[in-house]
Write a structure and sequence with these properties.
The complex is a heterodimer of chains A (302) and B (289).
Chain A: H1 2-9, H2 14-52, H3 69-76, H4 78-111, H5 117-129, H6 132-146, E1 152-157, E2 160-165, H7 166-190, H8 194-201, H9 206-235, H10 238-243, H11 251-261, H12 265-291
Antiparallel strand pairs in A: 1-2
Helix pairs in contact in A: 3-12, 4-7, 4-9, 4-11, 5-7, 7-9, 8-9, 9-12
Chain B: H1 2-7, H2 9-38, E1 42-43, E2 49-50, H3 56-60, H4 64-96, H5 100-115, H6 118-129, H7 135-142, H8 156-181, H9 184-192, H10 197-225, H11 229-234, H12 242-251, H13 256-287
Antiparallel strand pairs in B: 1-2
Helix pairs in contact in B: 4-8, 4-10, 5-8, 6-8, 8-10, 9-10, 10-13, 12-13
Classes of the chains: A mainly alpha (302), B mainly alpha (289).
Chain lengths: 302, 289
């Protein structure tokens, strides 16, 4: 805007600037085209996946008409429903545990200087960096030789009996602690400490300061960490697959074995259901973000 | 208690850390060491191990079968990272040059596939790429454009495509983060001094966005090298990567020590590649004024 008005005041520059403007708008146009192309690439497969979950034939390539049949089949597949409950149960429990542990760790790492901090930093980052498959086999061997974990936690939820191996929950907590710690720590780092100091100046003791000031201010970070942990737990396939022992399925594990047996629109239907879950979680995180005035800590999880 | 904390300030820190440290040392660091120990043992007859020191597992990783898989995995991960960079940089640049309101919408639009289950995104490509029943080949054949299905599935192409699709947001987000913070007055200064736009890119934008490029490349390269789901689904059982070979040692071959050795070599390769990459990119950065 400003450069344009300047060049227009200088007549001798006008020819050059017109050419520059044409070039610039062409560049701008191709950049926009590219941007749209990028998003097209990211969304098209997902959109096609959802469309074919309504296909009135076994094909996922030729459209033969609209139906809800595959969703009906999905709902009546007791294996799928059971694995859905397993997924939710594992995600809820592991999120609760990892949020508590991760938040405490974040407070230690952000607010204190101590010997061994560098080591703890490394220990906290390692589960994020290490590939799924390596962590999966590590835990498999560990649970196998220690003999703990494979026995199931038996619960009855809404009339459905679940038997969830402790090993799966332990593993999910192990990879979630780090993510929670990082998100909460980022929040702590941008927090204004003067409020806490003010509270202490007004004779609030340590606990009062923590409950009345620090914790509420940390809340967006904690919720962000919880959402991230919940999503990672719901989405995890590799680590669950290796640490669950035989016969236990979460939804992704179930989907994987269905894919191995053959492609049907029923898998598309289950996938669409999982997509709806992800969208709901994103929606919740947006609402939270609107509540907290700060920059999103959830957005870029890494 | 308060007095204790006052005397030993680190005590409070360690109390806060106690649960995380305990959990991670028992359920992460200990397993890591157990795998290291396992990789030096011999396999038992029924899947267990024999407590006998041996370097055989590490020697076997250099057998041509496994070594070539290593090389292929490395190649696939490197190509994936390169394509992600090639596609991701302009996309990040595009997002960062939009007005702020549009920017947050575009980032959100990037987060949605990012938060969507990786398995599902891979499966989506399976339904598109399959040789005889995939959407792309079926459509092209019914339109009469081709008479034989294209080899889109069960090869390195399918795996790389799946990995690029899966990890592209991981490349875009860190690059976007650095580009967004980029001081636009520097760009204006450069073009005021008659730098061509390609020169502005080479001398200003690229060096300043390097931290994002490095971070993004690592976030793509490491999971690509250790990929398991993508080759398992899109490799069609023929095209395998090191992650599949490792998992086979545990699921089928029951050779846990060898599987442990393979995963250690894999992690060592990752560590080495990361260090070399960091070294080369940071020295490049130092060369720029």
């Amino acid at each position: 805007m400003s450069s344009e008005s300047i060049t227009q005041q200088v007549p001798s520059m006008s020819r050059r600037s017109r050419w520059a403007r044409v070039k610039k708008s062409m560049g701008e146009f191709s950049l926009s085209l590219y941007g749209w192309g990028g998003y097209f690439f990211l969304y098209l497969p997902i959109v096609i996946l959802v469309i074919f979950s309504f296909n009135d034939s076994r094909s996922t390539a030729q459209w033969s008409g609209f139906t809800f049949d595959w969703y009906g089949e999905m709902i009546h597949d007791s294996q799928i429903i059971l694995s859905l409950w397993n997924s939710l149960f594992v995600a809820v429990i592991s999120t609760i545990i990892s949020v508590v542990i991760g938040t405490l760790a974040a407070m230690a790492m952000e607010r204190h200087v101590f010997r061994g901090k560098l080591l703890m930093d490394a220990v906290l980052y390692l589960p994020i960096i290490i590939p799924d498959i390596a962590m999966a086999i590590m835990l498999l061997i560990f649970f196998d030789i220690s003999g703990i974990g494979f026995e199931p936690w038996k619960v009855s939820l809404f009339g459905i009996r679940l038997a969830v191996p402790y090993s799966v929950i332990i593993s999910h907590v192990a990879f979630n602690i780090s993510f929670v710690a990082i998100v909460v720590r980022a929040r702590l780092a941008q927090m204004d400490r003067t409020l806490e100091e003010a509270a202490q100046d007004l004779y609030a003791d340590t606990w009062q300061t923590f409950w009345k000031v620090t914790l509420p201010m940390m809340m967006p970070g904690i919720m962000g960490g919880a959402l991230l942990a919940f999503t990672l737990s719901l989405d995890d396939f590799v680590i669950t697959f290796f640490t669950s022992g035989a016969g236990f399925n979460t939804l992704p594990v179930r989907v994987f074995s269905m894919i191995k047996k053959g492609v049907t629109p029923k898998i598309n239907a289950v996938s669409s259901l999982m997509l709806v879950f992800s969208l709901a979680l994103i929606g919740i995180s947006l609402l939270l973000r609107k509540g907290g005035d700060e920059e999103p800590t959830i957005g870029i999880g890494l | 208690m308060q007095r204790l904390f006052a005397r030993y300030p680190a005590l409070r820190a360690w109390l806060l850390l106690l649960p995380a440290a305990t959990w991670l040392f028992i359920f992460f660091i200990a397993p890591l060491f157990i795998v290291l120990v396992y990789s030096f043992l011999e396999r038992g007859t029924y899947g267990g191990v024999v407590w006998q020191f041996s370097l055989e597992n590490f020697r076997r990783t250099f057998d041509s079968l496994y070594f070539s898989t290593f090389l292929r995995s490395f190649y696939i991960a490197a190509v994936t990272t390169f394509i992600c960079l090639l596609l991701g940089f302009p996309l990040a640049y595009y997002i960062s040059t939009r007005p702020p309101q549009r920017r947050s919408t575009l980032i959100l639009a990037l987060m949605i596939p990012f938060w969507t289950n990786f398995l599902i995104r891979t499966y989506a490509w399976l339904t598109l790429l399959r040789t005889n029943t995939g959407l792309i080949n079926v459509s092209l054949m019914s339109l009469g454009i081709i008479d034989k299905p294209l080899p889109l599935f069960g090869n390195d192409f399918a795996i790389i495509l799946g990995l690029v699709y899966g990890w592209l947001p991981d490349m875009v987000l860190p690059i976007y983060a650095t580009l967004e913070r980029l001081d636009t007055s520097l760009l204006e200064a450069a073009s005021d001094l008659y730098a061509s736009s390609s020169k502005v890119f080479r001398r200003v934008i690229w060096p300043l966005s390097l931290p994002g490029v490095v971070a993004g490349s690592m976030l793509v390269f490491i999971p690509s090298l250790g990929a398991f789901v993508t080759p398992a689904i899109l490799g069609g059982g023929k095209s395998l990567m090191i992650g599949n070979i490792i998992s086979n040692q545990f699921l089928a071959a029951h050779d846990w020590p060898f599987g442990s050795a393979l995963s250690f070599v894999m992690m060592a390769v990752m560590l080495l590649a990361t260090l070399i990459y960091f070294r080369s990119t940071t020295s490049e950065e130092r060369m720029q004024p």
